[in-house]
Amino acid sequence: MRVELLWWEGCPSHPQALADLREALREEGIPEEALEVRHIATETEAEEAGFPGSPTIRIDGEDVSPPGPGEPLGLTCRVYRLRDGRISPVPDPEELRERLRRVKERTA
Amino acid sequence: MSIALGEPAPDIALPDTEGEEHALHASGTPSVVVFTCNHCPYALAWHDRLLDAAGDYAGRARFLLVNPNDAERYPADSYEAMRERVRGDGGWPVPYLRDESQEAARELGARTTPDVFVFDGEGRLRYRGAADADHMDASQNAAWLREALDAILAGGEPDRPETEPVGCSVKWRA
């Protein structure tokens, strides 16, 4: 399994996203070696990486919360919606764990 | 540049989404100037709390929400997108101002969206920072902002005049 965290320094959310992701990996028994943290610094890098904003988390290339069609790529902050309806700068931690679990079971 | 606590608000007026100009400061009434935007999750998370505070202090303090972001690189923050948002919500109880030149953001030294500045009735800066301690906790209810306003309205000084603003970086023009 390959887990990516792509981040940009214009949003202060990446430390929280990384902490949530590490905790989810630990809870699901996935070695941290699967995690790749990648800094996106320029618009060109954002285009090349298909980066819709910070933070973006992908598991085996699939966004844990896929952006809507036509959502632009670039250096911006992503808006996530938690299961309780609150707006959040990071993905729902429970949803993150479920995604990891599903991919882990699929590839077992 | 940025203004320090105790310094006067710059003499700047900005248009709201209906084109009406609003000065950052009005003599005799405290003014709350919040730099915010359409696309930042922190700004969106705090938005309802700010509107609630505006309602609770209606008649005692002015609230102005100001979008300073570069709309060329961030079209979601364009003047038209601001208008659409306000109209889509059926109108807002506070003006949503466009800082197209980014002069207000530069003069005040805004760093993030949101970034809160509270001026007293003489137009002097008395509070600057976050609305409260946690964007994810609605029960915080913009407590730091309210504390500052309560102190100013009582003729005193906020106990906590400055906090660290938390949010997305202001999107400056290239």
Describe this structure in words.
The complex is a heterodimer of chains A (108) and B (174). Chain A has 108 residues and is α+β, with helices and mostly antiparallel strands. Chain A has helices at 14-27, 43-49, 93-107; strands spanning 3-7, 35-39, 56-59, 62-63, 80-81, 87-88. Helices cover 33% and strands 19% of the residues of chain A. Chain A has a 4-stranded mixed β-sheet, covered by helices on one side. In chain A, helix 1 (14-27) crosses helix 3 (93-107). The relative contact order of chain A is 0.24. The radius of gyration of chain B is 15 Å and the shape is globular. The two termini of chain B are 17 Å apart. Chain B is of the alpha/beta class. Chain B has a 5-stranded mixed β-sheet. Classes of the chains: A alpha+beta (108), B alpha/beta (174). The A-B interface holds A 10-13, 72, 74, 76-80, 86-89 and B 39-42, 44-45, 73-75, 135-136, 138, 166-169, 171.
Give the SSE map.
The complex is a heterodimer of chains A (108) and B (174).
Chain A: E1 3-7, H1 14-27, E2 35-39, H2 43-49, E3 56-59, E4 62-63, E5 80-81, E6 87-88, H3 93-107
Parallel strand pairs in A: 1-2
Antiparallel strand pairs in A: 1-3, 3-4, 5-6
Helix pairs in contact in A: 1-3
Chain B: E1 13-15, E2 21-23, E3 31-35, H1 41-56, E4 62-67, H2 79-88, E5 96-98, H3 103-108, E6 112-113, E7 115-119, E8 125-129, H4 143-153, E9 168-169
Parallel strand pairs in B: 3-4, 4-5
Antiparallel strand pairs in B: 1-2, 3-7, 6-9, 7-8
